[in-house]
Write a structure and sequence with these properties.
- Pfam families: HATPase_c (PF02518), Response_reg (PF00072).
- The chain has 241 residues and is of the alpha/beta class.
- It folds into 2 domains: 95 residues, Histidine kinase-like ATPase, C-terminal domain (Heat Shock Protein 90, 2-Layer Sandwich), CATH 3.30.565.10; 127 residues, Rossmann fold.
- The strands form 2 sheets. Strands 6-5-7-8-9 form a 5-stranded parallel beta sheet, sandwiched between helices. The protein has a 4-stranded antiparallel beta sheet with strand order 1-2-4-3.
- Strand 5, helix 4 and strand 6 form a beta-alpha-beta unit.
- Helix 5 runs parallel beside helix 6.
- The longest helix is centred in the last third of the chain and has 15 residues.
């Protein structure tokens, strides 16, 4: 979706084309082509560097393409762009064409059902409405959900409701995730706090865990991984059995 969103941002007229092909080396090549402004040759490598934005007037953090690159490379593929100024751009990525293997769920259904019976409240600190709606849709049937739009509100909601677990975005207004985590730790050293962030590199995870978070989930969020992390924390830290 990041490639499609970027195409929409930079295409004022013309068309956007989405498709895929199976290459001779058995790699699937997906592409998003647009008729937008195009990207200078000397800037095309820069856009896959974190926090680099070619147009500072367009909304975004400069993390989308680097995260896409990390995901694609972990899947065994490559990502790139073909573009000329004034002639649009084609962003593409490849992934191996493999048969899907059915995997066992990381948490047994009886374990999940057991946790569902508990009166568990989760605080989600997230300033992006789309991200919150996604997590809320995944979790609301099994847990009570509180929502904070920024780090300061997260501290206030924790004081008022003492939730059992916190999902904390890092990059938020007023007070970021690190500051909110420290404020909540002053109130309770034991409540599990999981960082949910677009910082998706191994070094980011190490820094986040070293700073005092109990867990880490990179965006885009996998529902199965989200459940697994939450249930691990609730089982171990809250001793649900």
């Amino acid at each position: 979706t990041n490639l499609m969103t970027n195409a929409l941002k930079f295409t004022d007229g013309g068309a956007i084309t989405i498709g895929y092909t199976l290459q001779p080396d058995n790699m699937l090549r997906f592409y998003v082509s647009d008729t937008g402004c195009g990207i200078p040759k000397d800037k095309q490598k820069d856009i896959f560097t974190r926090f680099i934005k070619l147009n500072r007037f367009v909304q975004g953090t400069g993390l989308g393409l680097p995260i896409c690159q990390t995901i694609v490379e972990r899947m065994g593929g490559e990502i790139g762009v073909d573009s000329e100024v004034g002639n649009g751009a084609t962003f593409w990525f490849t992934v191996p064409n493999r048969k899907v293997k059915k995997i066992k769920k990381p948490i047994l259904e009886q374990e999940r059902a057991h946790i569902q019976k508990k009166d568990i409240t989760i605080l989600i600190a997230e300033d992006n409405s789309s991200n919150f709606k996604f997590m809320n849709a995944v979790l609301e049937k099994e847990y009570n959900i509180l929502h904070a739009w920024d780090g300061q509100e997260a501290i206030e909601l924790y004081q008022a409701h003492t939730p059992h677990l916190i999902l904390m975005d890092i990059n938020m207004p007023v007070l970021d995730g690190y500051g909110a985590k420290d404020g909540i730790r002053n109130l309770s050293p034991d409540v599990p706090i999981i960082a949910v962030t677009a910082y998706a590199f191994a070094s980011d995870e190490q820094e986040i865990l070293k700073s005092g978070f109990d867990g880490y989930i990179a965006k885009p969020i996998s529902p199965d991984l989200l459940f697994k992390k939450i249930e691990e924390m609730l089982t171990v830290r809250l001793q649900i059995s």
